[in-house]
């Protein structure tokens, strides 16, 4: 529970997460006595038909042939394990599981598998981003080993490119599409409040925010404190013209909340 003098008490925060992922973050902000407004700027749609779905089925049927399985998000866990449940009544022994982010790791455990972890003394287990995952000892020498990366279409290539350089035989299993909700620009145009901060949880959400600000002529939002999930996304925000981008240590709620409090304190000083 927050103290009686929460740094966020009475502050208005605009949340941009996909609608089905908003609840936990909104509740966390409200527990800090903040006012949470929600305008989803990312929509997740599973790929269930066509050639892409047939490719996913083939990879799922071969799942026991992979030494390493990497999940880049909670959505990747959800859709991958839905496929696995259809074709593997029991998970095969072979693959080792890896998660980007603590929430993704929790989602894997909830589906009955145990993701690999880093050195907790160095914080890797709780802040596993792409770079931290690539530092794991078990992913350094992969000559001839099969690796599958579960992700959405058009994901960041860093992990796959690096693992191929280390000798891995790599397959991407692209399970969902990320799109901008059709009514997002209109919702931003109709949003007349002045938030104290905006939170974005991915680079793609940031790109969508940039697009809807242009489309809605709400240019003042570019000068609102913007909480980003990494230094990379914060740099991307600055390049897009956002003047007050703050970088969290990672996309987890604890890290995003800490960065948000820092941003609000900076604005109040």
Automatic annotation (TrEMBL):
InterPro entries the UniProt entry points to: 4pyrrol_syn_uPrphyn_synt_sf, 4pyrrol_synth_uPrphyn_synth, UROS/Hem4
Gene3D superfamilies membership: 3.40.50.10090
Broad enzyme group: lyase
Domain Tetrapyrrole biosynthesis uroporphyrinogen III synthase residues, every copy: 27-257
CDD domains: HemD
Any matching Pfam family: HEM4
Keyword line: Lyase, Porphyrin biosynthesis
Substrates-to-products reaction catalysed: hydroxymethylbilane = uroporphyrinogen III + H2O
The EC number(s) this enzyme carries: 4.2.1.75
Pathway annotation: Porphyrin-containing compound metabolism; protoporphyrin-IX biosynthesis; coproporphyrinogen-III from 5-aminolevulinate: step 3/4
Task performed by this protein: Catalyzes cyclization of the linear tetrapyrrole, hydroxymethylbilane, to the macrocyclic uroporphyrinogen III.
UniProt record similarity statement: Belongs to the uroporphyrinogen-III synthase family.
The protein, known as: Uroporphyrinogen-III synthase
Organism of this sequence: Microbulbifer salipaludis
